């Protein structure tokens, strides 16, 4: 019994020692766990601290959106500034279309040489000479003084009206001396049908006085002397020189200017420059008759507003063909003439020579 108790006591003592050892080991392990927890806690706090940085970085995309929005208006602004540069190009398109003016007037070949132009111009003059072989001034006169006065009166009126007025004027005042000493009111009354009668009275009385005082009552035969007279310009002077003195000159009136530009003889608009340009295309001996041919054609066929292109004998030579009426029957109705002949002339109506193949008809009464 005693041995069994002693043996049981030893086992109990061993068990107590083992329990004490386990407690000691547990105590030693607890600080280690607490140290590991402490070490893990800073690590977690550090990771927690790093986490806001990630969130902050995640918040950066809104900043990108903001920059995109700010950049957006800049791009739009640059586009808006580029639009005005496009607008003038669109606006320039109608201008380019309007520049040619869409006229029906054809232009001559751009490669027409000077020689070709001279040949074409002279051929037109020859054709017109056949159509108007009796072309001459349409003002009635018996001497240089009457032609000078009649030409001055023809401004802004018709030659027919002047021819109806001058007989009474010359019957009462036949010489420059008589007209210079006339009563202005009486002269105005005679010239009233011509229009602008006050200004024309002043001109014809002034030139009559100058002829009396400076040229002995005679009309001078030089251009430089004629243009010094009141109311006398180069056009009037050349009419007098060419038809009263037989000295060649080009009469650049409104008809002449219109036709030579339609025929592309010149592009000049100043009468003096037109005179020089056209004069260079013809011999000087042709100048006076050329003026008559062109003026007659302008009054009868090649009108200002609606030329009778379909009845024009020089249509194949005219670069402006088509500007007027091209139908032959309709064009004939546009021709200007009086019954039995042209105004103040003895030629038959244009149909007579057009129907005869473009040949001019003889004067009435010539058979």
TrEMBL record:
This is Endonuclease III. SMART domains: ENDO3c (SM00478), FES (SM00525). DNA repair enzyme that has both DNA N-glycosylase activity and AP-lyase activity. The DNA N-glycosylase activity releases various damaged pyrimidines from DNA by cleaving the N-glycosidic bond, leaving an AP (apurinic/apyrimidinic) site. The AP-lyase activity cleaves the phosphodiester bond 3' to the AP site by a beta-elimination, leaving a 3'-terminal unsaturated sugar and a product with a terminal 5'-phosphate. It comes from Streptomyces spinoverrucosus. Its cofactor is [4Fe-4S] cluster. It catalyses: 2'-deoxyribonucleotide-(2'-deoxyribose 5'-phosphate)-2'-deoxyribonucleotide-DNA = a 3'-end 2'-deoxyribonucleotide-(2,3-dehydro-2,3-deoxyribose 5'-phosphate)-DNA + a 5'-end 5'-phospho-2'-deoxyribonucleoside-DNA + H(+). Residues 51-67 have a biased composition (Basic residues). Residues 1-114, 342-367 are annotated as: Disordered. [4Fe-4S] cluster binds at residues 302, 309, 312, 318. The keyword Transmembrane does not apply. The gene is nth.
């Amino acid at each position: 019994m005693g041995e069994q108790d002693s043996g049981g006591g030893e086992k109990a003592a061993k068990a107590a020692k083992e329990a004490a050892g386990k407690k000691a080991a547990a105590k030693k392990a607890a600080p280690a766990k607490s140290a590991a927890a402490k070490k893990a806690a800073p690590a977690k706090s550090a990771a927690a601290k790093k986490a806001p940085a990630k969130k902050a970085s995640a918040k950066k995309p809104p900043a990108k959106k903001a920059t995109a929005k700010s950049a957006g208006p800049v791009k739009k602004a640059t586009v808006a500034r580029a639009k005005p540069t496009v607008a003038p190009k669109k606006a320039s398109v109608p201008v380019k279309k309007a520049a040619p003016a869409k006229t029906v007037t054809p232009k001559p070949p751009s490669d027409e040489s000077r020689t070709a132009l001279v040949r074409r111009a002279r051929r037109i003059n020859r054709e017109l000479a056949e159509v108007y072989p009796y072309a001459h001034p349409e003002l009635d006169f018996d001497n240089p003084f009457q032609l000078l006065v009649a030409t001055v009166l023809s401004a802004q009126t018709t030659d027919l009206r002047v021819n109806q007025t001058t007989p009474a004027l010359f019957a009462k005042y036949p010489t420059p001396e008589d007209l210079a000493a006339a009563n202005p009111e009486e002269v105005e009354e005679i010239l009233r049908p011509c229009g602008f009668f006050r200004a024309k009275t002043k001109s014809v009385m002034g030139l009559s006085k100058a002829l009396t005082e400076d040229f002995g009552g005679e009309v001078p035969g030089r251009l430089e002397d004629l243009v010094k007279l009141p109311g006398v310009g180069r056009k009037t002077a050349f009419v007098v020189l060419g038809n009263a003195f037989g000295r060649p000159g080009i009469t650049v009136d409104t008809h002449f200017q219109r036709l030579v530009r339609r025929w592309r003889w010149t592009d000049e608009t100043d009468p003096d420059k037109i005179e020089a340009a056209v004069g260079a295309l013809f011999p000087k001996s042709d100048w006076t008759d050329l003026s008559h041919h062109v003026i007659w054609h302008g009054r009868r066929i090649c009108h200002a507003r609606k030329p009778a292109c379909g009845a024009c004998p020089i249509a194949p030579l005219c670069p402006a063909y088509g500007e007027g009426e091209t139908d032959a029957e309709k064009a004939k109705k546009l021709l200007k003439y009086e019954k039995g002949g042209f105004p103040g002339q003895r030629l038959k109506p244009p149909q007579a020579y057009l129907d005869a193949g473009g040949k001019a008809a003889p004067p009435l009464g010539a058979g």
